[in-house]
Q: What sequence folds into this?
């Protein structure tokens, strides 16, 4: 344990004062964020009260807390926002990326006391409470972030109300909670029933979307490319998918460990053997990697932000991307690879300029590609929106051939 | 694409003198650029007329030209230096305009020089309103709707469509005459009727008003591969209607959702592409309708700007440095992020803190000026603060202004909420405090929003601060309450006020409870990657990131926000202290809160604390730094009055002060002590006395005889300094300063007999306790009575003999000995009727240090710091830092350097729209300075005039109006002007004297005289007069003099208000008939060494 770690821990344990940044008076109830390594940060309850367990991760976006919270990929996580002021603009249904907020817990520096935006329909804490997201405010989020960066993503718990108990008990609860590695969460976030969404404009055919935690924006941009969508549950079989006579297939983003998603990998291999054009985002990229026969691994603390530079190998250009991933594909950058699963030649099409992590794959002998980042952004820059067009072009070219 | 290999030398154009709207930030960006270019092996040629800058130090370029930034001069430099390219995007609008002029005059084409950083067509697309409007529309964004109306009915139809208020601008009238906001139909009828009448073509321009909208700014960068990133978003707390330079601003934007922010980002990127800024930075301003979200693009600057300097300091992303590299052809992804070292520059900084910038105004220097904030920038400086929350950053920023009443307070009863809101509805300096009082008095957020247009979120934060104050005022002052207060940015002084305690008592209680700040790091990435940047800010959080080293260290206190009298010149000294002490093996620690400066570049010192310069904040930094290693001491003598004001408190807290002691600093200000020192040294001061009351002042003035010069102690820039000619005027003076709190028992008023017709002299010297080194002796061109900061001066002196120079040196030595100075000292003398009088002495670095350093090539700023830190002059000479001979007597072939002040009068209008008076006096009002350097005085003076305001005319008409006492002396120079071919016109009295002396002169009517023929003011307005010579009589700005000077300022003509200026000007007119030759500082240096 290094010096700064000891200091943070000592200070955190000693420091019983609740900063309650969002409130002047001592009105808010107490809460604690407990990390697996025994560090405890004390603050004020925010949103729902109770107990939330999950993997603690930090997100660095300065805008877009609503999109982050409604992104199903955050299911099962405790999200620490590095941006200090959260909730200023409230929430509006227009910006929801799914029907609810997914993180187990939510950690902020300064919770806004009011909502100020012409589109706001509701305050953030009200929405957090509605969806049972147990939050904590008034903690040193930078200290927590630095800890997660140095030690790695950890299991954690947010405790407030009756759940707030003695330190040893809370630490024990956190240490007994499940690890993120090896965890399959697709069933939690996926649609139970298949449903259809019509294309915007002239349709070019049906796209089979495997919902592993899909975001509203993704569906919108796919529809805008002329796809009639059939959104399918995560446990769909090859026969069920093909029954919709799709012209192409799509795997969405989603939470969990790709190594624990064998059935979706098998399904994808089946689709690829049909030479159906395929596009995958985020979790979908990891599953394409596995379907092609590559491995995946857990990153020390993941990429979660909307300022992540990615190099597009084909054009040499940089895209500022929105990212949210704790796992990555294990493949060599800068050379033509051969799919260990027999799908021919493959290349790493995109990689992170920060740490050279694989951010995109392209199969050269079958019509399939995927990216680890979020071209639908939400939250984040729209720099990579053209990938939806690229997918359409691939499908149109395949149809023409 | 990697770096271009066809660019081996680059001419960088600087921004010239500091003026309102274009200030120290361009020294920061230019210095960064020069540094980077040289690191890249490029030969750097620099032109900048401003000697007070770091960038014009000979170390930062291969050839440094302190010359006027005119196309002619730049062409001469181009012909001499043959640069491959010109970089015009780092020197503000001045450099961009110069580049356009070079292009339009065919100079670029003639010499085959390429512009890098921005192409001419890109600059034009950004600047031309019509081109830009179309480009914004093409990008799918909006501009404010407008229409031409030739009748009142058309105007009313427009108002029905777009709503009130409507902006009415008559076409083709001078200076915005007749334009305004029509709030209802009656006003619209009146404005449009008047406007159509006064317009030469009978039409008015109507524009939809966006007053009260939210205002945002984005800083973007783009490279040759079309990679574009947004470095920073900035939100104006003040709504549209207040210039962004005068607004309180916050970074990042805090009241936009991601969808709304991304829309601004998309538009911004689209526009930078369409404008074609292909390498470098630009900033774009947006207005957002708070009711609908409609976005209007206000403007863009295709260059590094004031906001980019702020964005660099706010994010840690060095925009200017990267812009310079992009101009050489590098791509963003080819350069590392300076801060993380491992990630590339092609990213968008993420902040995990809040930055607040507040403007610093100087309206007290221009009592007649209208202090309402508008779309014309009026602030002279700014302070920035970093906090973990908005409330914390805002309160830190407000106390960084170091201005009485600039911080929130809870004294007494706030008053009536409605009345306070009414006051706050007009944007002014200090409105934020009025608003805080209104909220304290019970105004609701909705009411405050209605009155000001400020977003409710920001208003709620002020309500929060008031609530915390209420909580603090009651109950025990325990750890919880103190933490709550500190978390919301309260200073010990504010807590003390709320609790009826002394600041020191609060501090003691706080320390006893262990409530102390921690220091966080500005790292561009919100903690995602480890960063080693030595750039810190305080917060009251859990974890500190500063690990003090075990080295010997020196803390340098900077000068805070720029203001008239305390500007970039002091930053220059601080930066050099950092460089010199680092070279001498010290660890250097800088404390400052001014985002415009080189001192707050994280590259300048070993460690930078971006913190307010208050005793509390500095003591906390001392506490952390003293925790390890050896804190050799704190330097307070280089940053002007701000750090000097902290010296006593630091000393009392046991903090070692380097160099001259606080006692000695006070002795120089304390009249009795200082008089004793002069007596012992056998030196003469003007008859004088010290008053703490009005009656005392009158008694002294009558005893020592009028005129008297009155001067409050412990002020800089001649604040409250005036020449008073009689007792009624002295009473009037006390009435004027009554509300400013600058005279009282603790701050006595110094009353000196004023020496008429004296030559004023400034000396900058260094004393080590044994030896005196004179940096330079400066002779003022104006006679005594005009503040030294506003006076032009020459180095070497051209009107003093060897014996006088030696007498001055000897007097300076005796004063330095008497005061027991260790470090810099500045002494002001006056020769009156052949007798040397001591006016004042200041044992600190002066405003003229950089000028002296540039004029003589002596690094006196570095030497000042070294002597403060214990070196002797002999040691510095042995090291080669100081030359063998000091600057008392210079060789006959030494170049002559002239400093000229640049004044901001054109910026200010009175409440009824008239110009403020431009008469100079003992209170300093200039914002900046230029230097002209050449082989003789007339040419150097001519260059200084060209650099300050475009230069003296060499033909045309001269208007002369002289006070009686000046008439005799003015005859000869005016005669010479006539010989040079100028036509002479004068008012009746003056004309009579001139005619009797054989000068052909035409008489012109005074403004106040009745008559049909055009008055002198009409002639000036009509542009028929080229040089105006108007010496005021009796020290009172008489109505006529005022009208003449106001018209002159409005038409930007040469104006001389003293006879000595006139003499210099005549010589300069002759000198400027030939094209100027240019010589770089490096060439001068080589000649000196030869």
A:
């Amino acid at each position: 344990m290094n010096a700064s770690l000891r200091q943070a821990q000592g200070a955190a344990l000693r420091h019983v004062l609740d900063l309650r940044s969002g409130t002047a008076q001592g009105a808010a109830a107490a809460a604690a964020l407990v990390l697996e390594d025994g560090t405890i940060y004390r603050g004020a309850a925010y949103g729902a009260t109770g107990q939330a367990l999950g993997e603690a991760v930090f997100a660095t976006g300065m805008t877009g807390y609503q999109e982050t919270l409604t992104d199903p990929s955050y299911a099962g996580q405790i999200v620490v926002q590095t941006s200090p002021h959260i909730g200023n603009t409230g929430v509006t249904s227009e910006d929801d990326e799914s029907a609810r907020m997914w993180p187990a817990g939510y950690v902020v520096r300064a919770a806004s006391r009011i909502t100020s935006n012409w589109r706001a329909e509701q305050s953030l804490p009200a929405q957090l409470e509605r969806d049972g997201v147990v939050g904590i405010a008034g903690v040193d989020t930078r200290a927590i972030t630095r800890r997660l960066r140095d030690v790695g993503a950890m299991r954690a718990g947010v405790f407030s109300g009756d759940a707030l108990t003695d330190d040893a008990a809370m630490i024990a609860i956190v240490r007994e909670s499940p690890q993120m590695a090896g965890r399959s969460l697709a069933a939690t976030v996926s649609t139970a029933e298949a449903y259809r969404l019509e294309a915007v404009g002239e349709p070019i055919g049906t796209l089979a979307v495997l919902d592993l935690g899909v975001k509203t924006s993704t569906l919108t941009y796919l529809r805008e490319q002329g796809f009639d969508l059939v959104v399918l549950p995560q446990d769909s079989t090859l026969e069920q998918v093909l029954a919709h006579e799709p012209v192409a297939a799509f795997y969405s983003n989603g939470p969990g460990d790709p190594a624990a998603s064998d059935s979706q990998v098998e399904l994808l291999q089946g689709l690829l053997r049909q030479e159906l054009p395929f596009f995958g985002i985020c979790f979908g990229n990891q599953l394409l990697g596995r379907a092609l026969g590559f491995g995946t691994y857990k990153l020390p603390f993941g990429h979660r932000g909307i300022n992540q530079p990615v190099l597009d190998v084909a054009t040499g250009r940089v895209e500022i991307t929105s990212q949210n991933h704790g796992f990555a594909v294990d493949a060599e950058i800068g050379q033509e690879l051969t799919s260990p699963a027999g799908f021919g030649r493959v290349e790493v099409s995109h990689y992170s300029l920060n740490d050279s992590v694989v951010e995109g794959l392209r199969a050269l002998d079958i019509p399939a590609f995927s990216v680890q980042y979020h071209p639908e952004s939400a939250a984040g820059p729209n720099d990579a929106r053209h990938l939806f067009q690229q997918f359409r072009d691939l499908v149109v070219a395949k149809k023409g051939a | 694409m990697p770096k271009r290999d066809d660019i081996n030398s680059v001419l960088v154009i600087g921004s010239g003198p500091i003026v309102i709207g274009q200030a120290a930030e361009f020294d920061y960006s230019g210095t960064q650029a020069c540094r980077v270019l040289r690191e890249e092996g490029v030969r750097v040629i620099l032109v900048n007329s401003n000697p007070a800058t770091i960038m014009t130090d000979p170390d930062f370029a291969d050839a440094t030209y302190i010359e006027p930034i005119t196309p002619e001069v730049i062409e001469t430099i181009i012909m001499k230096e043959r640069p491959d390219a010109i970089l015009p995007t780092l020197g503000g609008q001045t450099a961009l305009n110069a580049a356009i002029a070079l292009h339009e005059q065919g100079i670029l084409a003639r010499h085959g020089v390429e512009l890098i950083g921005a192409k001419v067509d890109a600059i034009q697309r950004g600047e031309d309103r019509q081109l830009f409007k179309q480009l914004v529309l093409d990008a799918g964004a909006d501009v404010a709707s407008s229409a031409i109306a030739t009748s009142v009915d058309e105007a009313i139809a427009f108002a029905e469509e777009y709503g009130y208020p409507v902006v009415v601008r008559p076409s083709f009238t001078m200076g915005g005459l007749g334009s305004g906001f029509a709030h209802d139909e009656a006003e619209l009828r009146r404005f449009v009727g008047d406007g159509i009448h006064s317009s030469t073509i009978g039409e008015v321009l109507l524009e939809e008003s966006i007053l009260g909208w939210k205002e945002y700014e984005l800083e973007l960068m783009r490279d040759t591969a079309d990679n574009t990133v947004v470095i920073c978003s900035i939100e104006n707390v003040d709504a549209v209607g207040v210039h962004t330079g005068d607004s309180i601003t916050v970074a990042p934007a805090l009241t936009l959702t991601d969808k709304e922010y991304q829309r601004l980002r998309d538009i911004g990127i689209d526009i930078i592409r369409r404008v074609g800024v292909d390498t470098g930075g630009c900033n774009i301003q947006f207005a957002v309708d708070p009711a609908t979200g409609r976005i209007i693009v206000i403007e863009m600057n295709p260059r590094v700007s004031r906001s980019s300097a702020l964005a660099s300091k706010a994010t840690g992303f060095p925009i200017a440095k990267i812009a310079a590299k992009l101009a050489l052809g590098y791509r963003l992804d080819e350069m590392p992020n300076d801060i993380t070292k491992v990630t590339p520059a092609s990213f968008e900084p993420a902040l995990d803190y809040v930055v607040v910038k507040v403007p610093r105004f100087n309206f007290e220097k221009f009592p007649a000026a209208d202090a309402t904030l508008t779309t014309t920038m009026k602030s002279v400086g700014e302070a920035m603060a970093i906090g973990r929350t908005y409330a914390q950053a805002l309160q830190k920023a407000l106390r960084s202004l170091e201005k009485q009443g600039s911080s929130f307070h809870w004294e007494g009863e706030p008053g009536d909420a409605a009345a306070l809101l009414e006051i706050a509805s007009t944007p002014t300096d200090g409105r934020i405090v009025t608003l805080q009082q209104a909220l304290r008095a019970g105004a609701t957020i909705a009411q405050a929003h209605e009155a000001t247009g400020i977003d409710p979120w920001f208003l709620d934060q002020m309500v929060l601060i008031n609530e915390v104050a209420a909580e603090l005022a009651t109950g025990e002052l325990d750890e919880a309450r103190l933490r709550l207060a500190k978390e919301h940015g309260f200073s010990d002084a504010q807590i003390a006020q709320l609790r009826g305690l002394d600041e020191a008592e609060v501090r003691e209680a706080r320390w006893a409870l262990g409530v102390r700040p921690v220091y966080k790091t500005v790292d561009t990435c919100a903690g995602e990657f480890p960063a080693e940047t030595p750039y810190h800010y305080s917060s009251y959080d859990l974890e500190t990131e500063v690990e003090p080293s075990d080295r010997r260290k020196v803390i340098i206190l900077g000068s805070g926000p720029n203001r008239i009298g305390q500007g970039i010149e002091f930053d220059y000294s601080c930066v050099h202290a950092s460089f010199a002490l680092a070279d001498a093996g010290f660890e250097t620690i800088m404390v400052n809160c001014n985002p415009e400066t080189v001192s707050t570049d994280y590259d300048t010192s070993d460690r930078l604390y971006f913190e307010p310069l208050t005793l509390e904040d500095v003591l906390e930094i001392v506490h952390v730094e003293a925790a390890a290693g050896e804190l050799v001491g704190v330097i307070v003598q280089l940053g002007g009055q701000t750090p000097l004001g902290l010296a006593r408190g630091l000393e009392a807290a046991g903090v070692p002060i380097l160099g001259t002691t606080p006692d000695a600093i006070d002795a120089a200000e304390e009249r009795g002590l200082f008089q004793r020192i002069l007596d012992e040294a056998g030196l003469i001061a003007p008859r004088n006395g010290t008053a703490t009351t009005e009656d005392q002042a009158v008694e002294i003035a009558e005893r020592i005889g009028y005129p008297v010069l009155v001067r409050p102690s412990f002020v800089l820039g001649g604040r409250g300094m005036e020449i008073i000619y009689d007792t009624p005027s002295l009473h009037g003076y006390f009435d004027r300063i009554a509300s400013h709190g600058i005279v009282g028992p603790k701050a006595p008023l110094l009353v000196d007999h004023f020496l008429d017709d004296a030559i004023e002299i400034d000396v900058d010297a260094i004393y080590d306790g044994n030896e005196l080194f004179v940096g330079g002796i400066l002779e003022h061109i104006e006679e005594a009575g005009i503040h030294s900061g506003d006076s032009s001066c020459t180095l070497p002196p051209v009107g003093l003999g060897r014996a006088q120079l030696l007498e001055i040196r000897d007097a300076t030595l005796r004063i330095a000995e008497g005061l027991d100075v260790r470090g810099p000292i500045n002494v002001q003398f006056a020769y009156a009727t052949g007798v040397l009088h001591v006016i004042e002495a200041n044992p600190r670095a002066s405003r003229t240090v950089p000028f002296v350093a540039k004029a003589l090539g002596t690094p006196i700023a570095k030497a000042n710091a070294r002597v403060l830190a214990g070196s002797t002059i002999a040691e510095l000479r042995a090291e080669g830092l100081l030359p063998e001979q000091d600057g008392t007597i210079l060789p006959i072939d030494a170049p002559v350097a002239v400093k000229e002040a640049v004044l901001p009068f054109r910026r200010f209008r009175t409440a009824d729209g008239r110009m403020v008076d431009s008469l100079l006096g003992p209170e300093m009002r200039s914002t900046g300075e230029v230097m002209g350097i050449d082989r003789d005085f007339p040419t150097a003076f001519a260059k200084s005039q060209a650099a300050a305001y475009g230069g003296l005319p060499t033909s045309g008409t001269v208007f002369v109006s002289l006070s009686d006492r000046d008439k005799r002396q003015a005859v000869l120079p005016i005669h010479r002007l006539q010989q040079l071919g100028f036509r002479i016109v004068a008012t009746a009295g003056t004309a009579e004297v001139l005619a009797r002396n054989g000068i052909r002169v035409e008489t012109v009517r005074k403004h106040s005289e009745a008559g049909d023929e055009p008055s002198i003011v009409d002639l000036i307005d009509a542009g028929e007069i080229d040089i105006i010579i108007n010496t005021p009589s009796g020290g009172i700005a008489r109505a006529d003099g005022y009208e003449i000077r106001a018209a002159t300022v409005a038409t930007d003509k040469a104006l001389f208000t003293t006879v000595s200026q006139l003499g210099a000007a005549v010589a300069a007119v002759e000198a400027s008939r030939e094209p100027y030759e240019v010589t770089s500082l490096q060439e001068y240096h080589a000649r000196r060494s030869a």
Observations:
- The domain at 3-176 of chain A is CATH 3.50.30.20 (Glucose Oxidase; domain 1).
- Chain A touches chain B through 67 residues (CB under 8 Å).
